[in-house]
Amino acid sequence: MPQTLYVHVPWCISKCPYCDFNSHVVKGKIPARRYLAAALADLDFELSERPVEGELIAVFFGGGTPSLLAPEIIAGLLEGIGKRLALAADLEVTLEANPGTIERGRFAEYAAAGVNRVSLGVQSLDDAMLRGLGRIHDSRETIIAVGELRAANFDNFNLDLIYALPGQDIQGAVADLAGAIAWDPPHLSWYRLTLEPGTAFSRRPPPGLPEEQEIIRIEALGRGLLAEAGYRRYEISAYARPGFPCRHNLNYWRYGDYLGIGPGAHGKRTSGGRVIRTERGHSPSRWLHLAGQSGVVSTVEVTPQEQIFEYLLGALRLTAGFRWRDFRRLAGADARVLFSRLEQAEREGLVVCTEAGVRPTERGHDLLDELLLRFLPA
Question: Is the pLDDT of residue 2 over 80?
Answer without folding.
Answer: no
